[in-house]
């Protein structure tokens, strides 16, 4: 579990299925990350749990410490096809503009670079997602390359453990 002044991050479980579907049901929330049926959510949550088991990290539910309300998700995701660990965040629209994404992501980065010893973390942000691009830049990420993720063009941002812009793989 990761905590900040306002937030608690915990690994996602099967018990989060209905919440996951509701979070992604909002068209403004899912326009960059997609929506889920209950069956798709069950599969995705199993994949996340397997990643926790295999790699020691994965996506987390982000809850308000004051109330326990789940307001979003943030965490690390391993992309086998890129050989990269990505940080990602998605928050319920009612909680946008309160700094939760930056706060949660900052804590996840500290955990990834510190406890996990990662050397580089990427953030894959679909074109047009200006809010997430702003969060990435606020955290010190810089553009690394253009790529395609989930059949959509994106900019891959990167941050090295030392806080520098990470270089592409040779």
Automatic annotation (TrEMBL):
This is GNAT family N-acetyltransferase. Residues 7-162 form the N-acetyltransferase domain. It comes from the Bacteria.
């Amino acid at each position: 579990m990761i905590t900040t002044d306002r937030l608690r991050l915990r690994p996602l479980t099967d018990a989060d299925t209905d919440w996951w579907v509701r979070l992604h049901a909002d068209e403004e929330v899912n326009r960059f990350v997609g929506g889920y049926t209950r069956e798709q959510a069950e599969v995705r949550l199993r994949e996340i749990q397997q990643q926790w088991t295999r790699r020691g990290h994965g996506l987390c539910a982000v809850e308000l410490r004051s109330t326990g309300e789940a307001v979003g998700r943030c965490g690390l995701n391993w992309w086998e096809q890129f050989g990269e660990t990505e940080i990602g965040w998605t928050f319920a629209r009612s909680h946008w503009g309160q700094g939760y994404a930056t706060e949660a992501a900052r804590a996840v980065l500290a955990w990834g670079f510190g406890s996990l010893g990662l050397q580089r973390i990427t953030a894959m942000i679909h074109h047009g997602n200006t809010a997430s691009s702003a969060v990435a830049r606020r955290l010190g990420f810089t553009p690394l390359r253009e790529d395609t993720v989930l059949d959509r063009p994106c900019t891959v941002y990167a941050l090295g453990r030392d806080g520098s812009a990470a270089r592409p793989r040779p």
